[in-house]
What does this fold into?
Amino acid sequence: MPVKPPPCMSDHAGKNESLGLSSVVTEIHAIMNGIIYGAEMADANTTFSYLADDPEAVFFQDKLHYSRDSLLSRFYEKYEKIQSQKFHITGSRTIVLGPESAVWVGYGTGQTEMKTGESVDVSFTETWVWQKIHGRWVATHYHG
It folds into this structure.
């Protein structure tokens, strides 16, 4: 019996099960839960550990293009000021393109607790393009 995705994430492409691709959805959901956990802990290494180390990979944040290293650097600086974060995924979808490629699209709200004691409400949308390369899922595109 296929494992259902966690309640914070839903797969709206029910046809994946009939195509035998539900394991891809399950794998991507597990990875995304780890990424969300890393973001909640303000841990850039955990949050972005799946980014492809490929100069042709494309990463965007706040309308700017980044390399893997420059995106990590940006988030190291950002997360250095954060005590913790809590996110609520309002909606998400995993679109399986094949047994070794998928797209995760999600959006939600959250609250960031700064080290200064300030609390900031946030909203976000993200797109992650996943490819299985050498047996490991990597994000070859991120857009937040």
